[in-house]
Amino acid sequence: MTRYAITAYDAGVLASERPVADYFEAVVGAGAEAKAAANWVMGEAMSGYNETGRFGVSAERLSKLIRLVKEGVVSLQAAKRVYPELVDGNEEPRAVADRLGLIQVGDANTLGAWVEEVLAANPSEVERFRGGEAKLMGFFVGLVMKKSGGKADPKAVQPVLVDRLKK
Known about the structure:
Elements: H1 8-14, H2 18-29, H3 34-52, H4 59-70, H5 76-86, H6 93-99, H7 108-121, H8 123-130, H9 136-147, H10 154-166
């Protein structure tokens, strides 16, 4: 608990079997943050382990997948779609995410085009937002996500929206 700054529950699950503890430590050792590694090991990785008695994704590749989420390259939901593709394979997580079209778009020009389309299609909501209805920000972010097919980085969308809504 102390070494990895994880909860007693997480530590208990991860220490329940030696192979699980070793795998968790290997994922962290490969560069993943401990809490994120704990979540992945106790979730997707444990499901496979419980079914087959082994971990189908190397600790190094799981660590790379966790880093892709942390760096905003893919969303957590996208990473969960990538994970099964990594089982018993040799393909790198980023290559799988790319092949599946799950890399998030953070380019301001591309995001700006999607934002402009969304704002142009919703003039009454734009006026309501400018009139003080700040809660509409989530509505706009959702529409941009839909317009982008889920590829827009939601953290990058909001600043672009704020900038365009000031005009």
